[in-house]
């Protein structure tokens, strides 16, 4: 009985010590468990604790320095409710917001603000019509992700100085903006301009895991010949100078149409 009593006493001492260590666990000690989940990213110059810390350098798998990361995690994560605040600052991407992992493995994002330099997306947006330039600003009030795709979304986007880089040089489009909502995995984005720039734009972009569709009407407010040539490359020009753009693609070639009243 004495060995058993000694073992129980030892466990009684070790359990609070382990809990205390976990409560104040240095972030660098947790790196071997964190980095395998970062899809090739590496955290360097790590300071602080697992719950409140920062990485002075976030490195891509190819060695590029992407930026720096700060985090503040709730200790309720120990109870199976991971949640916290993240802030990333980089030359091409900046974001700050709250993240929660729900019991059904879905991810909830709340009050997230982000800024993206569109030049960073050149590898994904190659088009004979040009490459987008400038800064895209995003505000996500709420998003619910399942398998990485938003099944719920309430967000806004602004492209305050929209520019497309073409063979003829940079083409200014003015300020463009959009409001996005998602239900049942279908994202609908209402697109429009601010009413003052060289491009008049109104339309809707729909996306789902199976496809996408764009239906928009564009028209030049000015007599800029470069802008008019760019618009003519998108489709037939109507008598009022407008161009109706209809595009779609993806695995299914389309997404469900918007409900009609």
Sum up the structure in keywords.
261 residues; mainly beta; elongated; disordered N terminus
Number of separate structural domains: 1
- The averaged pLDDT comes out at 84
What letter string, H or E per element, gives the SSE order? HHEEEEEEEEEEEEEHE
Query: What's the story with the biggest beta sheet?
Result: 14 strands, antiparallel
Beta-sheet strand percentage? over 45%
Distance between the termini: 79 Å
State the total count of DSSP E strands: 14
Categorize the overall geometry: elongated
Poorly predicted runs: 2-21
Tally of individual helices:
3
Structural class: mainly beta
Report on the architecture of this protein.
The protein has 261 residues and is mainly beta. The protein has one domain. Helix content is 15%, strand content 52%. It is built from three helices and 14 strands. It has helices at 2-23, 27-34, 225-232; strands spanning 42-48, 52-59, 65-73, 83-89, 93-101, 107-117, 131-133, 135-146, 149-166, 169-183, 186-193, 199-208, 211-220, 242-249. Strands 1, 2, 3, 4, 5, 6, 7, 8, 9, 10, 11, 12, 13 and 14 form a 14-stranded antiparallel sheet that branches. β10 (169-183) and β11 (186-193) form a beta hairpin. The longest helix is centred in the first third of the chain and has 22 residues, at 2-23. It is elongated, with a radius of gyration of 25 Å. The termini are far apart. Residues 2-21 have low confidence and may be disordered.
């Amino acid at each position: 009985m004495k060995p058993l009593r000694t073992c129980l006493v030892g466990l009684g001492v070790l359990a609070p010590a382990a809990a205390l260590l976990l409560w104040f666990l240095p972030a660098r000690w947790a790196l071997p468990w964190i980095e395998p989940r970062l899809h090739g990213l590496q955290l360097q110059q790590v300071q602080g604790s697992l719950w409140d810390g920062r990485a002075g350098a976030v490195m891509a798998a190819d060695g590029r320095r992407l930026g720096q990361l700060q985090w503040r995690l709730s200790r309720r994560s120990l109870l199976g409710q991971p949640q916290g605040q993240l802030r990333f600052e980089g030359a091409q991407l900046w974001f700050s917001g709250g993240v929660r992992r729900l019991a059904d493995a879905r991810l909830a994002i709340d009050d997230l603000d982000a800024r993206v330099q569109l030049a960073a997306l050149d590898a994904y947006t190659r088009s004979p019509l040009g490459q987008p330039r400038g800064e895209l600003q995003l505000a996500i009030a709420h998003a619910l992700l399942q398998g990485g795709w938003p099944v719920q979304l309430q967000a806004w986007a602004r492209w305050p100085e929209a520019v497309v880089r073409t063979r003829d040089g940079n083409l200014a489009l003015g300020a463009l903006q959009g409001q996005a909502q998602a239900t049942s995995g279908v994202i609908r984005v209402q697109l429009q301009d601010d009413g003052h720039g060289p491009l008049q734009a109104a339309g809707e972009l729909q996306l789902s895991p199976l496809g996408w569709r764009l239906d928009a009407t564009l028209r030049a407010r000015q007599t800029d010949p470069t802008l008019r040539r760019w618009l003519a490359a998108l489709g037939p020009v109507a008598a009022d100078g407008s161009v109706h753009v209809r595009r779609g693609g993806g695995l299914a070639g389309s997404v469900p149409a918007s409900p009609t009243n």
